Amino acid sequence: MKLNLILFSVLLLFLNCSSDSENTSENISEPMYFPPLTTTTWETKSIETLGWNQNAVTSLLDYLEEKNTKGFIVLVNGRIVLENYFSGHTATSPWYWASAGKTLTAATVGIAEQDGLLNINNKVSDYLGNGWTSAPIAKENLITNWHLLTMTSGLNENLGDSVAPDNLQFAADAGTRWAYHNVYVKLQNVIEEASGQTWSNYFNARLRDRIGMTGQWIPSGGLSVYWSNTRSMARFGLLMLNKGKWESEVIVPESYVENAQSTSQNLNEAYGYLWWLNGKESYKLPLIQFQLQGSLIPNAPQDMISALGKNDQKIYVIPSKKMVIIRVGQVANPENPTFGLSGFDNELWTKINAVIN
Predict the structure, then answer these.
(1) The domain containing residue 290 runs over which residues?
(2) For residue 181, what is the domain's CATH number?
(3) In this model, does residue 140 exceed pLDDT 60?
(4) Is the pTM of this model over 0.70?
(5) How many structural domains is the chain composed of?
(6) In a domain? residue 194
(7) 317 assigned to some structural domain
(8) Separation of first and last alpha carbons in the chain
(9) pLDDT at 115
(10) What would the pLDDT profile of 8-41 be if each residue is shown by its tens digit?
(11) Deepest of 145, 153, 244, 245, by most Cβ within 10 A of its Cβ?
C-alpha cells in the first residue's frame, strides 16, 4: 500500500509537470496568427489561457496611465492579449512613431535591396551624387548605405536635426565611430533615386499596404515622421517577429532581418540596423561617446529587440516569448525627456514581468 501511494504521488507530480510543460510548449508551438489586411478583425488570446497573473494587470494599466500612455498592445503569437487606450485615445487615433520609425526605413532598405534597386554595401554617393554632405569628397565617398543603417557614417552628430549638406560635416572616417544621427534618413533619398518613386509611394506599395498598416509620413523639421494608429505599429512588430514574412509572403528577406536584429558593428554591441538590441555586454547611447556596461534594459528579456522613439514610443519584439509589445504616448517622465531609451523602459518591464511571469 505504501509503495502504491508513493508511485501514485510520483505519477501525479509527473502529470503536473507535464501539464505545465505542455502549456508552455503550446504557447511556443501555436501557429502564428496574422490579422486580415482589410478589416479590423484581430483574434485575441486570454490571460488565463497563457497562465499569466491577472491580479497584476490593474497595476500595469494604472502605471501606464500615470506615465502618460496613449496606447498599449501586447501580442502573443500574433493574437491580442492586452489592448488598452487612455486619455481619449482610441484604436483609430494616429500617433507619431518618432525614432521608432527608423526601423521602417531599415525594413524598406531590405525590400529595395531584394528588389534589385540598391546594395547596402555601395557608397551613398552612387545614388545621390557627390556633395550630399559638406565632408571632403574622399571622406564622403567612404560612407555606404550600411554605414547609415548602423550609425557609423563618421559625420558630426552635434549640428542639429537638419540633414542638409551644411549640417553633415566630417568627424571621423566612416566605420570608425558610432554616433546616433539623423543622417540615416538619406536612405529614403537613396530609395527615391533608385526606384524613381517618391519615398512615400515606394514605402506604401512595398511595405505598408502588404501588411495592412495605415498611416503616413509627415514632414517635420526637415525629416519625415511616421504617424499611424497603434495597431499598425503592432502589425509591423509582428512582421519583424516573424523574420520579415507575413503569412507565407516574404516582405523583407529573412537574412536581412536577421542581420538587422544582430550586432551590426563592433562599436556599439547593442545596435543592429536602426534597431536596439538587449542582452549585450555593453552599449552606447545617443550623445555619448563612451560605453556603458551591462544590458540595455536589464529587466527585459535578453533576446528582445526594440524600436525606440522620442517621448517613449516603443516597439518591443521578444522572439523567445513570441511576443510584441507596443507603447505610444507622451513622455513618461516629463522631467527627464529622452531620445528613445529611458529609465521608463526598465520600470515598465518590472510591471510587465509581474503579469507574464
Answers:
(1) 47-356
(2) 3.40.710.10
(3) yes
(4) yes
(5) 1
(6) yes
(7) yes
(8) 39
(9) 98
(10) 343 333 334 443 444 444 455 789 999 999 899 9
(11) 153
Partners of residue 315 on adjacent β-strands: 307, 326
Residue 6 lies in a domain: no
Q: Taking Cα atoms as reference points, which of 334, 357, 353 lies closest to residue 344? A: 334
pLDDT digits (tens, 9 = 90+) for 244-298: 999 999 999 999 999 999 999 999 999 999 999 999 999 999 988 899 999 999 9
Q: How far is CA 62 from CA 86, 138, 240, 300, 330, in A?
A: 10, 55, 29, 20, 15
Q: Which residue has the cell 513622455?
A: 331
Over the stretch 169-224, which tens digit does the pLDDT of each residue have? 999 999 999 999 999 999 999 999 999 999 999 999 999 999 999 999 999 888 89
At 59, list the grid cell: 497595476
